[in-house]
Amino acid sequence: MQEKDRTAKQGKIKGWWQQIMGLPCIGRRLAGIVLGNLLMGFAVTLLRMSHFGNDPFSCMNLGYSIFSNLSFGLCVVLCNCVLILWVILKDRSYIHIGTLVNMFLLGVISDMFYLLLTSSWGSPDTYDLSFRCILLAAGILISCYGCSAYVCANLGMGPYDAIGWIVDRSTKQRITFRYFRIGMDTIAASIGFMLGSIVGPGTIIMALFTGPLISFFNEKINMRLIYGPKESKKGQYAVDISS
pTM of the entire structure? Predict the structure, then answer.
């Protein structure tokens, strides 16, 4: 009986993987997922080092890290494991291979870059204001481009992102993604602040003003790179995160 169950599970996993590999432009889409999460992890590190505040989700998990003495990456994984339960219950269509990559690798990637950069550049407490501003600007731009690559791949999204879209769809836009996300981000940033994380201009910019920049990267660069100019113009893979 156990052997049959094991075989059935292996068959499901194999079928799921074959289904993924049969999707259009799958090689470039998988590359978009991996590159996007690498860049977002790097950007989180730059924003952490700027001491101007991170995006609200990272701000909250940095607060958990300060409070618990666990690594930031582990706090991101644990938080995502809690949030994914709600997504599973409400709408599993948002879960795909990109969800798993984002859940389990983003925080770990950020921790890796943080250790690497602080060992090379020294403690962020020693940076002057001009260098911190450069880190802030670079972090915002790289984060937006990475988020665009990850979103345009259209292979699932992280639980924190998915919740807003599920509420938008389930309420038939009576509660839109934009306003629900503002509420989520406000709560996340508040939790982070109460636990000792930095809330600053970086937090506000990442929460309220990055949508148009991500949409620009979607339309002008990543949709074309992943699907080609002709397919991206058809709109069948179009992604709009600014609403």
Answer: 0.87
Residue with tokens 């269509």: 93
In our burial notation (b when 16+ CB lie closer than 10 A, e otherwise), range 71-107 reads: bbbbbbbebbeebbeebeeebeebbbbbbbbbbebbb
Structure tokens at 120: 């090379």
| Residues with Cβ within 8 Å of residue 161, at least 6 apart in sequence | none
Q: What is the pLDDT of residues 127-154, one digit of tens each?
A: 999 999 999 999 999 999 999 999 899 9
Structure confidence at residue 236 (pLDDT)? 46
Three-state secondary structure string covering 101-117:
HHHHHHHHHHHHHHHHH
- From residue 138, how far is each of 45, 46, 52, 135 by CA, in Å? 11, 7, 12, 5
Tell me the two tokens of residue 243: 């609403």
Cβ 114 vs Cβ 73: under 8 Å: no
